[in-house]
Amino acid sequence: MNAHTNVLTVTQLNTYVKSILEGDRNLQAVYVQGEISNFTDHYRSGHLYFSLKDSGGVIKAVMFAGNARRLRFKPEDGMKVLACGKVSLYEVTGQYQFYVNELQPVGAGALAIAFEQLKNRLEKEGLFAEEHKKALPRCPERIGVVTSPTGAAVRDILNILARRWPLSEVVLCPVLVQGEGAAQQIAEAIARFNREKAADVLIVGRGGGSIEDLWAFNEECVARAVAESKIPIISAVGHETDFTICDFVADLRAPTPSAAAELAVPDRGEVLRNLLHTDEVLRNSLQNRMNLERQKLDRVTTALGESFNRPLEKSHQKLSKLMAQLDALSPLKVLGRGYAVIKKEDGTILENASEAAPDEILHLRLKNGALKCRVLEQEQV
Amino acid sequence: MKSKMTFESAVSRLEEIVASLQDSTVSLEESLKLYEEGAKLSKYCYETLEKAEQKVRTLTGEETINEA
Q: What's the whole-number mean pLDDT along residues A132-143?
């Protein structure tokens, strides 16, 4: 063995093999499909280490922090993915591996998976719990609006608020609602409204768009800002069929920005009608009360009069009764019916015919006047 | 009446007054006073609703009146 002719150091060998791998253009932009296993999230560096495998084999893979940061879902063991990257060799271990630039779930879209993952995580944390939902003020004095200053959403919101409830002041905080930095701006706007106590209720949202367009409202920082807000938040993202994480955390989800404006304030016409009714009730209540008091007064007055008159009336009644009795018993009354009282000369009243002798003088008292009579004869009856 | 009264607090007070007026244990003198206050509140609410004009400002910008 010609030991001295072609002896390489380990490093030289690894470097050489690496240069061959990297020299092959086919290996510098490879798409590989496989299943993730041995996934390790290196928290400190942000690099992701894992293996890709299929039924026949395994390859080590690494995704550096710069690329990993752009991932919208969290890779997990068992997840089927499509990875794009290059093949090279890690000289320290002599390990040949796959350097991943981009990673996409196979089947469900990356965003759909990211959405489910974040939703599950926040739900477990209790961020969607009913008991955290704050009640909206009935008539907010200031309504904060966090949305794009140029979209249809802000126009719709302003129009509806002006029509329904112009009493409120609208405080706009213009933000990007899609693209780089949108989520951070939305989260910061919510935090700012809270710091400055600049509104009684917040509408956070945007008009319709693709799931990518709406993505900022699915970002964790927005969800956290909504959860931490002391000001009640109405989430209004996209159309009726779009659900975002922001919707779940918010105190109220509105199907559209217009609907959010309707939910935020009462309707002036309706309030006016209610006021009209209240006014009527107010006046009627007093009227009823006055009537009640008047009746009470009438009753008392009557009672007072009665208590004064009653004794007098009673004596009056008694007197007439006595007079009637007296009248009924009066002998004159009997004479009135055709009878007469007969007296002897000595004044005794004659009761039996035998008490009078023939020729005796008798005095008859009639109803009107008297007669002096002589007895002719005694008759036996 | 206080100069700085929110619409909502005015309406709440008005509702309170209406409830008290329907309670016959409140003295008549008190009722009359309450009615007077209620009538003022009701007028204030009407005027506020009728005169209201939307104000819009941005968190960084100046206050403006919305034309919409």
A: 93
Among the partner residues B15, B28, B57, nearest to A293 by beta-carbon distance: B28
Q: Which stretches of A207-359 are assigned E, i.e. beta strand?
A: 233-237, 252-253, 341-343
Asked if A251 contacts A234 with a C-beta cutoff of 8 angstroms, the reply is: yes
| Contact: B39, A282; criterion CB under 8 Å | yes
Over residues A64-73, the mean pLDDT reads 88
Checking if the pLDDT of A59 tops 60, the result is yes
Task: Quote the tokens at residue A1.
Answer: 């063995």
CB contact A152 to B (< 8 Å): no
Indicate whether A334 pLDDT > 80.
no
pTM over 0.90: no
Report residues of chain B scoring pLDDT below 70. Answer: 1-4, 61-68
The answer to whether A167 contacts B7, with C-beta atoms less than 8 Å apart, is: yes
Interchain proximity B59–A162, CB inside 8 Å: no
Residues A61/A100, Cβ–Cβ less than 8 Å: yes
* CA B36 centroid distance within chain: 14
Distance in angstroms (rounded) separating the CA atoms of residues A343 and A9: 184
Among the partner residues B21, B39, B45, nearest to A289 by beta-carbon distance: B21
A306 inside 8 A of chain B by CB:
no
State the Cα–Cα distance between residues B67 and A47, nearest whole angstrom: 54
Please tell me the distance from the alpha carbon of residue A229 to that of residue A197, in angstroms, as a whole number. Answer: 10
Q: Which whole-number Å values give the CA distances from A239 to A167, A214, A235, A243, in the listed order? A: 28, 10, 12, 9
Mean pLDDT of A110-137: 89
**Average pLDDT of A161-180?**
94
Instruction: Name the one residue in this structure whose structure tokens are 């280490």.
Output: A49
